[in-house]
Amino acid sequence: MIDVDVSDLQTVQDHSHLRELVGDPAPIVVDKDRGYLDEHGLAFLERSPFVLVSTSGADGTCDVSPRGEAPGGFRALDTRTVAIPDRPGNRRVDSLVNIVDNPHVGLLFCVPGVEETLRVNGTAAIVVDQDLRESFAVRGRVPKLVLCVQIEEAYFHCAKAFRRSALWEPSTWPDRAELPTLGQVLKDLKDSPDPVEAIDAALEEENRAALY
Hints:
By secondary structure, this protein is an alpha+beta fold. Helices cover 30% and strands 26% of the residues.
């Protein structure tokens, strides 16, 4: 693999050049976003077990973080507010640090087997209200934080990305053995003397014991 300097390539420098290349959107696409969740958005959210949370820090650096819940675990507090509990992770909290500095976020909700997605853009707050946190308890464990997003835009995204990728088609999935385990990745990254199997076992125990 050779090194590439993108600055040596021809690039788009302004909006007019971009529009020349891709054209203008159809009116139905331009007018599809709302500042709230309608009945269809609420139904999709209720069934979504997975969301990607995109954030940007004060210095412009970006982060995208996956969040997973059982269906119904992401909640509309009202038609303009979405709540996402913050479950145990690796404690880097990159997304949350970004939100403290810059509350603007983008959310992409997915439902297994559904090729369309629900996109939500808005401003986020990291909420520590006890009653709200307790309402998200699972197995007696209460999240320390809840991410609440005030909706500025909400709209559905078409199926083309999922159709092209065939993401929900098991026949297209690679053999898991073709890719390294996370234990192997970490061993190589840290040049660890520990066996891969021991690292993978420790990671799996963490996944099991600290899920909530």
